[in-house]
Design brief:
Elements (H helix, E strand, L loop, with lengths): L8 H11 L3 E10 L9 E4 L4 E2 L5 H17 L3 E8 L11 E9 L4 E6 L3 H10 L4 E7 L15 E5 L3 H6 L6 E4 L4 H14 L4 E4 L3 H13 L4 H4 L2 E2 L4 H4 L7 H16 L12 H8 L5
Parallel strand pairs: 6-7, 6-9, 7-8, 9-10, 10-11
Antiparallel strand pairs: 1-2, 1-5, 2-3, 4-5
Helix pairs in contact: 3-9
Amino acid sequence: MNAQRPESWHEALHRLQRDGLPHALATVVTSAGSTPREPGARMVITADAVHDTLGGGTFEFQVIDTARERLGSGALGMSLEAFALGGRSGQCCGGFVNVLLDIFPGSAATLAVFGAGHVGSELVRLAAPLPWQVLWYDSRDGVFPDWAEAQPRLICRHAADPQAAVAALPVNSHALVLTHDHAEDRELVDALLRRNDMASIGLIGSHSKWASFRSRLTDAGHDEAALARVRCPIGMASGGTGGDKTPYAIALAALAELLPLVGYAERPDQRGLEPAQLRALFDEPSA
């Protein structure tokens, strides 16, 4: 039986980008003297795997360690790492290498969608091009459509216990509650509010539904500050008087409401390399 061919760096990069998983791309950008690989050599690094090589040896191990340290710290963007092969790297080549590390922290946000009905299905479809991890929950058996298996960054989960499903959510998740059952909706909102670490909470329904929920949730111990964290109805841009209340329109409006809440994961001051680093790179002696 033939062994499976290892993934190349570009195959791994495509898969990890598609699935929204944290990874680093290491690229040799300059080399002087005797070095293991020439400029342009690339390697992809994750917390538990390495794809392709920059030449091996202590130098490569140091690149991997540096990349994993930055991944573990949640660092974003690019950094330029210098390696003297014989100094920092303890190798006998005697050359000098600059490696560009580009850190991709994974999905920009996590969206938890509770409910695989008409609006939930449209939400998940519309979210596909966005760089978000989508967790799709439903308490019923066999309700997820076949097309969901091929959607990137999407995980479908049967959730018979709403409390346990909420407890398992990552910190700072954005949650949208739109199940087939009002009692389940209320239990989910109650559990989400008790977490106190959700980025946002949205609930489908009417103003009268929310008025009823507010009363029950107040009796359950949630104060006004907590209740103010819930957006209900979601998709207000489509759900006003005379508005389009089709599942697609509600889903589209609900995602539009989320976009400014999610924001952009990369700060302006973290884009690219510092000018001083680039100047030092281009002014570096060739030998």
